[in-house]
Amino acid sequence: MGTPYDAIILGAGIAGSGMAGALAARGWRTLLLDRGTFPKHKACGEFLSPESKISLAWLGFDPSLGVLRPAVIDQVRLIAAGGARMAFPLPDSALGLSRFALDEALRASAADKGAEIRSGVTVHGISRVPEGYLVEATGGGGREMLCGRAAIGAWGRQRRVELTGGRQAAGDAWQIGRKTQLEGLEATTAVELYLFAGGYAGVAPVEDGRVNVAAVLNARLARTLDLRGSEWLRSVAALHPALADRLSGGRPVPGTDQSASPVRPTREPVAWGIVPHVGDAAIVVPPLCGDGMAMALRSVERCAPLADDYLRGAVSLAGWREAYERALRRDFRAPARWGSLLQAALTRPLVSSALLRLGARAPAAAVRLFQATRPSGAISPG
């Protein structure tokens, strides 16, 4: 097994890479594993909310610096298929940045801080041992047993029973997500949400003048549409006249078309199974709220200091678990519930049209509802 690591992180997405960087920066011998290879595009709205920027600053990472060149977003627009619409400004600027660029930058940041990163590694199981955790994995060097004093699950929304200890979160009905990037469209400073029966499409600017288009469809609607390749764009645009106009003339960027299925928002965070969970492994928020990346990063803010305390001997494993579960319930329970209610309402045409007309007349109320879907209690950077 070799010398035990201080921490083994399972999954190198936003949360896993952020966690690896946070622990490596504190001087811990950290191993970050992922079964995929990088860089790669992912099905995502690619919207970094103002809350995300706070969490990234806490990690010592500023996506607006260097070569990433994110788009700046300062407004939210909602457009119902029947024509009702409203807009409101964001309380602080957001960013549009592809997962292709962001994930790779976070991994590079973790490596710069001293984390060891291995891709193309499949984890088969986790078990408790006197030294901490034993991780059974297969990679380029064959099957091996890795030992860590701590292990953290960052494997995303797909909860494998052998890694979670059987803990599954109660959730809403499953959905399917699709995304692609387009060239040749006007890149505004708004994130635009086009609402229709059974789903919605989000349009947002990202780096290099491109526009990201992401759709979330419920299972019933998805079964009626042609979702093969780039055909999904035409199928979804046909559901919403304003969306069809917005996408007219756009050219798909090769290699950016991605899907995610099933997408099943969870109603309660599952902070811990065999090991603590961060990111989508802990909670999958309703995609329409646009705060999935912020929630993932917030979970790292809550988990990393507790992991550091545990590794220093300042808190027991039970104490870490109790404090972390309490923090995620406090931060995520209300936003997840409000988000589920809001997404359910806005994907029903009559309800969404009425809500948008009401919001246009009372924008302050709309902003308060938007803020109810966001986590509270940010940790100050530093």
From TrEMBL:
<dbReference type="InterPro" id="IPR036188">
    <property type="entry name" value="FAD/NAD-bd_sf"/>
</dbReference>
<protein>
    <submittedName>
        <fullName>NAD(P)/FAD-dependent oxidoreductase</fullName>
    </submittedName>
</protein>
<dbReference type="InterPro" id="IPR050407">
    <property type="entry name" value="Geranylgeranyl_reductase"/>
</dbReference>
